[in-house]
Amino acid sequence: MTEFVPLDIVVLAGGISHEREVSLRSGRRLADALTGAGHDVTVIDPHAGLLSELVDRNPDVIWPTLHGATGEDGALLALIETTGIPHVGARGEAAALAWSKPTAKVLVRRAGYATPASVALSKETFRDLGATSVLERLLAALPAPLVVKPAQGGSAQGVTIVTAAAGLPRAMVDAYAYADVALVESRISGTEVSVTVIDKGEGPIALPAVEIVPLSGVYSFEARYNAGETLFYAPARMDPTVLAAVESTAVAIHSLLGLRHLSRIDLIVDAAGTPWFLEANVLPGLTETSLVPQAIEASGESLGAVYAALARAAVAEA
Length: 318
Hints:
318 residues; D-amino Acid Aminotransferase, Chain A, domain 1; Rossmann fold; alpha+beta; 21% strand; 40% helix; 4-stranded antiparallel sheet; Dna Ligase, domain 1; 13 helices
C-alpha cells in the first residue's frame, strides 16, 4: 500500500476584481476540502509581495481561485509559471485565450462547433461611430432577443437579456461597466447546462452535466450565489444520446482551448439537441452553490478526493 504523503498547497483567493467575494468563498471551500483530505493548505490573498512570498515558501503546488481579471486573464498564471512552482489549472497563454469570450468563440466556431452569432464592440467604437447608428446596425444584423455581456468576466456580472430593441442601450452601458468590450450575442432558446471537465492525469473527462433552471428565468449573479434561487439537476434531464453529445463537446472544447486539470464549459442545448457553446471558465467557482462541486458530487466522488487528485496531477506535470 502506498504511503500517504500530504501536499503543501497554497490557495490564492481574493484579489481586487469585481468577483473578490466569490473568490474568497471559493478559496475557503477548496481549502476546507483539501484539509479534510489530509493536506496542508494555506490561503493567501494576493498582495504586492506575493511572488517573492511564493518563491520563499516554495509549496508543492499553487491553486489559484482568483475569479475575474485578477486570475483568469492569464497574466498572474504566466508569472506563477516563472517561479517553477506547479499550479492547478490552465497555463497563462491558454487562460488568456479562453478569458476573451470573442476569441474563444472564434476558435470554437472554426473547429466546427455551434456558438451563437455575435458582434464584439469596443467602448471606443461604440462612442466614436455614434451610439444610435451602431445600435441600429446591431439590431439589423442580430434581431432581439439578445444577450449582452462583457467580453471578459464571469458570475453573470454586467450580463443583460434583451427582449426588445428598447433595452439594448442600457444593456450596453451595463456591459461596459465591467469591460471595455461588449459582446452582443443572439439568444438561443433551450436548456442551459454546464459541464465540468477534469483531468487527473489520464486525460480530460466530463463529469455529469448540470442543468440550470433559475426561478427568475435568468441565471443572474444573485441566482448563482444565493441558495434557493435556482434549481439544479445533475445529471441534466435530457436524452442520454444528447447528454453524451453535450459532454463530449465540452471535453473537445476544453482540449481545443488548451485548458488543463479543471474547467467548466457552459452551453445551451436547443430543441434539436444541438449544444451551443457560450463560454469557458478556466478558474470556475467552487462555492457552496457553484456548479463544479455539484458535478463532482453527482459523479459519486468526494470534493476532497477530486481536488487532491487534481493537485497531484499538477505536481506530476512539473
